[in-house]
Specification:
Layout: H1 15-34, H2 37-91, H3 99-179, H4 185-195, E1 205-209, E2 212-213, H5 222-228, E3 237-238, E4 245-247
Parallel strand pairs: 1-4
Antiparallel strand pairs: 1-2, 3-4
Amino acid sequence: MLPLSYPPAMPAEHPARRLQLLDSEADRLRDERSELPERSSLQANLDEGRVVVSSRAEAALRLEILRRDERTIEAKVADIAARAKGFEDTLYSGRVTAPKELAVLQAELASCKAKQGEVEESELELMERGERLEGEITAMEARRGELERSADSLRAEIAAQEQRIDGELARLEEAREPATPAVAENLLAAYEKLRGQARLGGVVTSHLDENACGTCRMVLPIMEVSRIKAGDPGAYVPCPACQRLILI
């Protein structure tokens, strides 16, 4: 006697299978909608934008402090220069003729000149640091502009993709309306109940592969196999292992 054999897969035209295909496609589309790569790109864009704005504010504060220090040093340079000019004017005015007093004036003038040189060098260093900071701020402002333009583009792309996916979901919902009544009432109730179980990932129907569940490969008792092969459109067997609805 030839061994008993069964179809390797459930016919696609089975009403519950049709419903499963529609729901699985809708699940895929909803996952696609929530996981659009542009979303992660936009989030990375916004994260970088916040860093750039924060860094720009910090740099602007440091620049303000530098400019304040520059003004302080400028005033100090002006004060030293005024003192040096006073010593110089006195030295060359001819009013002082005593060698000792002239030597003191020359020493004071030299000291002022040396001090002025040191302070002017510090001022120059501050100016150079300020220029570097201004360059950094300019670069950050340019980057912020780039990020804002990129974010606008990503938002537009996300909106377009959402519109496309929403349209496809609406078409699937329309197709589901006539597909639902075609499923036997008892089978539909079991189907909808299992669809709510997250562990099944929305896939709640299975098929016979010989006498086993086509999803998890659990072998079924021959009586159960015979029952679902009897031809009743509402007949199904919950898989003992994965609990999916085995149909034929």
